[in-house]
């Protein structure tokens, strides 16, 4: 059965559109990969036990009748219920089901992970598809001004593996001081010294000769390696960064400022999502683990008198079902859906919940503290025929079959995104701590300058083919904070309201502009001059009233053509109990509610300076140990018994 549906281009493209992604060749490409790779390897039937006994329910029968097909006697009982099979949820499900006596239920709102997600170069193809929640930000006076209706798209995985199944596969852990800062904010046990063993535990690195082995793991579930394919531009960009004085280093070994040919969560030219890494090897082997897809959790069941979580209600096959958790409910639904589920459960800002008629069980700052890594479109380098990699439809089709048969060729990588750099701008005053990251993305120059908005909305073609490059300076340490709220019209099933507040604080815009200006130094390098790189100086429509290349022009571009690399965090903030914005404790327990935790990127008190997938997997690993320490007498993680020999670094 096909589980994947590509983007419906008809909703964007008109018969008069001239951009490549609106042509019939793109439709044929999408049809081809849907037929070849739209299926999932995980489509097997799995039995699970149902219990007919009733249990306390804080929704009335009248309230539940809102959902079609509600069955009041549908009950299942488990020790642990995990909500969300994303980067963290898959880890938690694996680690808890290691205990044979524990019965574990993993619920995922999306589908099984299709094979099309395995192809690294198809990251933009799967992000704009049925695997995405389709979230958009609310209009703002400071960002996304040229986007349709003033709203930016925020891709989030609605699929087994969550966003790790649709992301760009980058494996970066962030800076050690990021985690030390978490500890200084009142979170003991979350320093770099504390979390590094969990990064090592999760990792199976297959390029020991290219890294500082001291900081890496080699027998974890998560495969990490270089892609088997790099084109001429990818290698040239790393050389160009080095020519500008950035050292070539292992950016996961304690220091970040420099350049690197990135490692990725992949294996032999295929994506390794958290589902592939942590669930697929055990799913049909551990009888105590039940996985249910297309199961949209509506709320956590909480006894309002004892303030104890005892289960969940979820929508499956148009029926509301309930499952009981004898030990804990663990919410791993991500920085957007975790706060939504908590609010629907009666945990959140009291005034907001009361506006929606939700009984307030615990007044907490759920949904606050939203942070993201923002960037911009608009800095475009044009290539000559010497290094451009454009291909006709016949060549693309051949490459698709090559990848299917051998997992090699240009589709077995993410193109120039492999060339990474972390830098400081003049606004950063901490030694060795970057405030800008550069990602360089494939671009069709004519498409972008014919219609930059439509080009962005229909960017479904593989990353391997391009005649231009978009240089993205990524803001790593935003001062701006946003928030998530329930949908006003349909708080239960309606799209959450994402108030990103991007560029609300002026310093964030200043850093981006400085990042743009520094990126232009790449064009001064002999490496890129030999290849004929040039800056496209055609002003973008929303900013053509300003002189091209001025600070004012780049600020306009950033605010009009705002983009993101989809790293929302912070909305269920971890912090000490006296922190009025904290939602969970350093043990990831929701304040004031027993037997309820949140374990995902939403607990980050401050966003890390780097890609968030590896840190979220680390949170899943550490959170699992925290649970075991509470429920297993005498449990102490074996990590603490190992001597990893970190003292030389920590004592510097």
Write a structural description:
The protein is globular, with a radius of gyration of 24 Å. It starts with 23 loop residues before the first helix and ends with a helix. It is built from 18 helices and 25 strands. Helix 3 (87-96) packs parallel to helix 17 (613-631), helix 6 (192-202) crosses helix 17 (613-631) and helix 14 (506-519) packs across helix 16. A hairpin with a 2-residue loop joins strand 8 and strand 9 (270-271). It has 652 residues and is α/β, with parallel strands linked by helices. Strands 1, 2, 10, 11, 12, 13 and 25 form a 7-stranded mixed beta sheet that branches. A 6-stranded antiparallel beta sheet has the order 7-18-19-20-17-23. A two-stranded antiparallel sheet has the order 3-4. Mean pLDDT is 93; it is low at 45-73 and 647-652.
Distance between the termini: 56 Å
Structural classification: alpha/beta
Radius of gyration (CA) equals: 24 Å
Q: In total, how many beta strands?
A: 25
Portion in beta strands: 15-25%
Number of helices: 18
Q: Could you say which overall geometry the principal axes of the C-alpha atoms support?
A: globular
Summed over residues and divided by their number, the pLDDT gives a mean of: 93
Note the main attributes of this structure.
alpha/beta; 18 helices; 6-stranded antiparallel beta sheet; 652 residues; globular; 17% strand
């Amino acid at each position: 059965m096909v589980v994947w549906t590509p983007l419906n281009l008809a909703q964007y493209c008109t018969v008069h559109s001239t951009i490549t992604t609106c042509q019939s060749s793109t439709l044929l490409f999408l049809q081809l990969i849907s037929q070849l790779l739209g299926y999932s390897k995980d489509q097997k039937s799995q039995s699970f036990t149902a219990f007919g006994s009733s249990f306390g329910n804080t929704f009335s029968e009248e309230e539940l009748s809102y959902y079609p097909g509600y069955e009041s006697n549908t009950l299942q009982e488990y020790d642990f219920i995990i909500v969300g099979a994303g980067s963290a949820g898959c880890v938690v499900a694996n680690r808890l089901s290691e205990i044979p006596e524990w019965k574990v239920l993993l619920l995922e709102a999306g589908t099984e992970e299709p094979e099309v997600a395995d192809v690294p170069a198809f990251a933009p193809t799967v992000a704009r598809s049925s695997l995405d929640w389709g979230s958009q930000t609310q209009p703002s006076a400071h960002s996304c001004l040229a986007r349709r209706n003033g709203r930016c798209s925020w891709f989030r995985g609605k699929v087994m593996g969550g966003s790790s199944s649709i992301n760009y596969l980058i494996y970066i852990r962030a800076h050690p001081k990021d985690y030390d800062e978490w500890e200084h904010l009142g979170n003991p046990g979350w320093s770099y010294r504390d979390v590094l063993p969990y990064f090592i535990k999760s990792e199976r690195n297959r390029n020991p000769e290219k890294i500082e082995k001291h900081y890496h793991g080699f027998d974890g579930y998560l495969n990490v390696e270089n892609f088997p394919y790099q084109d001429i531009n990818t290698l040239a960009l790393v050389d160009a960064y080095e020519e500008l004085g950035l050292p070539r280093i292992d950016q996961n070994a304690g220091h970040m400022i420099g350049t690197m040919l990135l490692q990725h969560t992949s294996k032999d030219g295929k994506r390794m999502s958290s589902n592939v890494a942590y669930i697929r090897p055990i799913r049909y082997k551990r009888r105590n683990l039940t996985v249910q897809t297309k199961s949209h959790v509506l709320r956590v069941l909480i006894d309002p008198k004892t303030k104890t979580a005892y289960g969940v209600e979820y929508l499956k096959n148009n029926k509301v079902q309930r499952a009981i958790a004898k030990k804990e409910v663990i919410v791993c639904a991500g920085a957007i859906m975790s706060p939504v589920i908590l609010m629907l459960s009666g945990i959140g800002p009291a005034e907001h919940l009361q506006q929606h008629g939700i009984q307030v069980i615990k007044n907490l700052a759920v949904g606050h503290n939203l942070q993201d890594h923002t960037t911009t479109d608009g800095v475009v380098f044009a290539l000559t025929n010497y290094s451009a990699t454009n291909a006709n439809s016949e060549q693309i089709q051949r490459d698709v079959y090559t990848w299917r048969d051998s997992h090699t060729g240009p589709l077995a990588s993410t193109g120039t995104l492999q060339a990474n750099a972390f830098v400081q701008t003049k606004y950063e005053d901490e030694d060795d701590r970057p405030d800008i990251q550069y990602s360089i993305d494939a671009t069709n120059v004519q498409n972008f300058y014919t219609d930059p908005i439509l080009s962005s909305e229909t960017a479904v073609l593989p990353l391997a083919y391009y005649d231009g490059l978009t240089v993205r300076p990524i803001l790593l340490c935003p001062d701006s904070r946003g928030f998530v709220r329930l949908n006003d019209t349909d708080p239960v099933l309606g799209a959450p309201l994402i108030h990103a507040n991007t560029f609300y604080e002026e310093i964030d815009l200043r850093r981006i502009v400085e990042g743009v200006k520094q990126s232009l130094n790449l064009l001064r390098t002999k490496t890129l001059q030999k290849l004929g790189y040039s800056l496209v100086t055609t002003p973008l429509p929303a900013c053509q009233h300003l002189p091209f290349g001025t600070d004012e022009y780049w600020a306009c571009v950033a605010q009009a053509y705002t983009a993101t690399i989809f790293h929302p965090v912070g909305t269920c903030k971890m912090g000490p109990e006296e922190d009025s914005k904290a939602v969970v404790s350093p043990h990831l327990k929701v304040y004031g509610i027993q037997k309820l935790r949140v374990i995902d990127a939403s607990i980050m008190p401050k966003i890390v300076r780097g890609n968030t997938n590896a840190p979220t997997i680390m949170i899943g690993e550490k959170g699992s140990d925290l649970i075991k320490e509470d429920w297993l007498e005498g449990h102490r993680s074996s990590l603490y018994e190992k001597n990893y020999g970190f003292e030389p670094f920590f004592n510097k």
